[in-house]
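lol ok so funny story. i was supposed to be doing the assay writeup but got distracted and ended up predicting the structure for this chain instead. priorities right. anyway since i did it might as well share w the group, maybe its usefull for someone
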Amino acid sequence: MNLSNNQSNLAAYYFHQGTNYNAYDYLGCHEIKEGNDYLYAFRVWAPNADSVRLVSDFTSWDIGEAMSRITDAGIWELIITSKKRLTGKFYKFKIWNKGNAYYKADPYAFYSQTHLNTASIVTNIDNFEWSDANWLNYRKTFFNKNSGTYAEKYYFSAPLNVYEMHLGSWKTKEGKSTVGGENYLNYREIADDLAPYLKKMGYTHVELMPVMEHPFDGSWGYQVTGYYAPTSRFGEPCDFMYFVNKMHECGIGVILDWVPAHFPKDAHGLYEFDGQPLYEYQGHDRMEHKVWGTRFFDVGREEVQSFLISNALFWLRKYHVDGLRVDAVAAMLYLDFDKDPGEWVPNNEGGNQNKESVAFFKKMNTAIFKEFWDTLMIAEESTDWPMITKPVYQGGLGFNFKWNMGWANDMYDYLSTDSVYRKFKHDKLTFPMMYAFNENYILPVSHDEVVHGKKSLVGKMYGAYYNDKFATMRAFMLYMMTTPGKKMTFMGTEFAQFREWDYENPLEWFMLDYPKHKEMQGFIAEINNFYLENKSLWEIDTSWDGFEWINANDGDNNIISYKRKAIDSSELIVVINFAPVTRENYGIPVEMPGKYKEILSTDEARFGGNGIVNGEILKTAKYQNQSGKENHYININLPALSGIVIRKVNGRARRV
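and the output, tada:
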């Protein structure tokens, strides 16, 4: 980017103040066309360096060219004139500190090498022709901006059904392993296959595990060395832009996992960048996460704030992504996260809250929503820290969604329990509703829950493989898709992959040759699209106005029943039986007399069930309660390990 001297001085000033949210336009490598020549401006922040040299394909890799220190706080600069464009050339910064030299990749590089090769690559990312204007306008309709705040119950009155995926293992070339860094599909190849698949399956968004450059496949992308570079495993930056654009053209939003908590100790990365701690905390009580083997960002430092907030906005601006899922928020919020007594120092009030992180999140989310009020900022936060998804001006951290990890843990505990004993854990089904509206939640079936011996989702279900596990999973998915909260499932779940996820190998798509797995895929497509088509299931996700228990207390029979309601008061009745016993003539109280119809059953034969369904029309009957008041109910046949959805079909009737 061509900056005048005055603009350059301001960019540096705001960078050091922690308020340059376009830092990537200033630091890094930028091409400037001047007459017949090309000028390249290289800038890097290294305040502790004695000297910095640019080493590259075009300056030599040994001596390189000296950079000049242009701010007292440590920005170094070099302007190179070239008759030819340097696009595709490799470079690094050679940083000297107390007689030692450190070869570092550019923290602001837009393109980097992968695996054992770690140089930054000169590139221009401003030449892609986007064609997603319709999508960018459409996504604004998800949000009720007039509600004033996402504390309002109708803030996001739209469906949100996320497909979480790992780009390297969704599919590969000829189904081969990616060990050794081979057999990856290109971003474009994945996009052309993925977009129509997600649309057919009824997903609204795809969430990508980190695409930012990372050297180690086994980190799944969560140990980032190139925060501004989409990994070159799958192609060039323009190829990733094609991926996002293709998703948008097909009506699929794109969410990126983003990691502002920590970074790895790879020698070419941010680790002790100028020969001593810089991007990381200085004190040993905060510096390192010993289990992960990574360094924590010092988010109290102004230049680090400019780096991270600019990076979040970079992906929203330059790559048109629709949201960020912020990783490891709890690790940032708590000073004693994963630490033993004596390994951490309390804050100035004697508590374990990291006040710098609190301030950082508020600052970041304020900046993001000022520019992109129609984006998703999702916290992966595993504790009961209050007001994660409340606006900053109300005292919250300013995210607009949060993963409900407590819900997920309760569900897996319940589903893995023998049905004989489930009645003793019935509260696992009902307790999440006690706090369901404290935050704006996403219900996650995430990658973390299908690895390291935790089993795949279908593998978690108690019982025999074909007879029980598939039926229970269908019942659970109905429960998930019909209870308050937005939805997310990990790739492979949709066809009940039995093997745990393996990042080095593709999903086991061959399992679709087996009827039960093919039927499960069909069921997931059906229930996803059912969710999209029924506003009762998503218009009111953050208020009791959208949910009402019919019977939360039938633990002896392992049954729950409830209503979901839309803004116009239209409603669906959901009944789920987690016992391996069919309940005949099971009574469901209803408020209005008339005719009701079963519109979905997880036990339908086409889904792999036993085909026990209720008749075309369910008529109400009368009964008197203990006070003598006349009420109405319908009798249903409720198949074993199944759920059904019922709707009133003869128009509106008077309430009794």
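Confidence is low (pLDDT under 50) at residues 652-656. The first strand starts at residue 28 and ends at 34.
back to the writeup now i swear
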